[in-house]
Amino acid sequence: MALTDLVVPQAVVPSLRVNSKKQALQELATRAAAICGRSEREVLEVLMQRERLGSTGIGSGIAIPHGKLAKLERLFGVFARLERPIDFDALDGQPVDLLFLLLAPEAAGADHLKALARIARLLRDPEIAQKLRESRDAEALYAVLMSGSGEM
Amino acid sequence: MAALDTVSLTIMFAALLLLAGILSSLVALRFGAPLLLVFLLVGILAGESGPGGIKFDDVRTTYLVGAVALALILFDGGLRTRLATFRSAFAPAAVLATIGVLLTAALTALVVRFLLGFDWIESLLVGAMVASTDAAAVFLLIHARGLRLRPRVGATLEIESATNDPFAIFLTVALVEMAMAVNEPWYTALEELAVQAVGGAVIGFVGGRVIVAALNRLELPQGLHAPLVTTAALVVFGAAQVLHASGFLAVYLAGLIVGNRPTRAHSGVIAFLDATTWLAQIVMFVLLGLLAWPTRLAEHSLPALEVAAALMFFARPLVVFLCLAPFRFSWREKVFVSWVGLRGAVGIFLASIPLLVGMRDALVFFDIGFVVVLVSLLVQGWTVALAARRLHIALPRSLPAPRRIELDLPGQLEHELVGYAIGPKNPYLRRRLIPTWAKLTLVVRDGRVLAAAEADEIREGDYAYFLAPPEKARALDRFFVDMPPPAAPDVRLLGDFFVSADVTLGTLGEIYGLAIAPEERAVTLADFFAAHLDHKAKVGDRLPLGTIELVVDGVAKGRVTTVGLYLAEAAEPTAPESLLAQVRLFAARAFARLRGGGPERRAK
Q1: What architecture does CATH give domain A3-147?
Q2: Which domain range does residue B98 map to?
Q3: Pairing of strands B548-556, B559-566
Q4: Residues A12-48: tens digit of each pLDDT
Q5: Chain B residues with CB within 8 Å of chain A CB
Q6: pLDDT tens-digit series, residues B200-214
Q7: Fewest beta carbons within 10 Å, which of B22, B152, B196, B430?
Q8: Contact, B43 vs B286, CB < 8 A?
């Protein structure tokens, strides 16, 4: 499965303005809700459920909030670059400025895990992260995300 | 007056030489060359065959300075080793430091005997001289390169290097005596070894306790705590040596005890010893370089190179694999431990013993020892970081020296006062971000001290002080120090995502779609590790769970606190530590497939 199936160009937010982790999750949930056609509350709920186990801030300024929703038709992704990094309780304590939200259908199983691993390893690539931080607009960000996904 | 002039000249030249050594570290950092090697080269250049032309052949002074420097380096090493790490690595390190040294000496001797045609005792002497790994070199390379090894690997190397000197010294001295035909019954040698080891351990233990008591009880003027500890360490070393016990072992143990007990002025002592150790290393290596005669070294360089090659590629790897076979190390880690068998000052120091006692052909031994150390520092020292990366055993994030001010608070272990200078490029000015667990306490602005409320916003040019839990002080650096982005972490080591170990298997299974047996749903990850590992959990331990792997990420008091989730797909198969774990993983995967997880794609 390619990353192109996960993220549509409209799901890339070039410069999100938020002040806290909670606000960031809320904003992401709003955008995801609009794309996947589910309520914002539902989305936020599953994200918070996962954050309670431990932050999805995986270090180096990257966070990948994720969760499962019943009866979702497919995997949905939203990518956002924050205008200013925020504290995300990340494991390394570093402020986060790149966020990738992934929602999966209840039955996705292996696909969900594969997609998560792929996204995590893609964003962990320092070159990709650097390019994402340097890109100005949504098209450029989208292009970087897609260019990197082929190598995985 | 002429005599005074000579003294002044000596002082000036010695200081200049030291200065050259210190400045040469800039060169070393730029080219990534091993620092110790650069110091050695400065000494060689200043010496009689180099442009410096200084005549120096005082083996006794070198021995004295070398011993003091080594003692300080070992004490510092002990001071920085956590007791828990020490315990976890003690057994493998002890085997390496005793049987390992003996085997290394014997195997090297074998090569020397047949390649160079020395007699048996001489061959063994060469073997013994180069058999011990050097604490200074190992400590410096592991710490200065910012290599974060799995604690057990790093500690094994460090403890080995700190404790194998007594054994190598003993072997060398015994063999020199034999070569000089000093007739003593064989059992006196064993007796000596026992006194060395046991005496060293006892004196080190008692000495460490006494230093801790003195530090906490004596009302010394501010600033004298660190010198007290340092000189006391040298007293421990000297006392042990006088009593024919191993001063090196004693001083390392004393350091270990001082470093692991709550003491006053801990950060002051650490900072002072850090400086002292640097100085000691520079002095020792510059002096050793001075002592060498490069023009003559060339004569013996070919046989010496053969010895070095035999040691690095034959004796050391074989010994490491043999000695570590009973312990849980992956083959990658064993290869790394083999490669980081760095030789250093101890080798040269031991090589000077034949000179010191006036043995026949002593220079040959000295030259061989010297070249072996040189080659080891050059070849192995230069490639340590590379080897760690290639073998995938270095943990990510090399921490550069933190640019923060730490203050111990009296009677306070939960909080530390941490301060940062807010320069024009401080990341805080860009992000305006303070983590919730750190509390702004004081701001020093234009020489005035302001309380947090008075200061309003932190501005450029301020000094900001925060109260933070000591274990998180490092994380605070991220907010106030401009740091280069960390290297990409190796997911194979850490996992893709992280969760607290209080999470139950059921919850995790629900979120990640893992098949969990009903009776295991309520089990927490911490308990899962406790039940399924046949040893105490350590960072990096892994267990399969359904289609993913759990990797221990944090441990406190023997219990797992945080767990990495390694979503195994899309990467090359991992090499679990033991055969058993491999079988378990295979079984788990096969089982998951049977349950309808679908065929596993090993896509690259």
Answers
A1: 3-Layer(aba) Sandwich (3.40)
A2: 2-396
A3: antiparallel
A4: 888 888 888 888 888 888 888 888 888 888 888 888 8
A5: 397, 430-433, 435-436, 472, 474-476, 478-479, 485-489, 491, 496-500, 503, 507-508, 510-513, 547-548, 553, 562, 567-571, 597-598
A6: 999 999 999 999 999
A7: B430
A8: yes
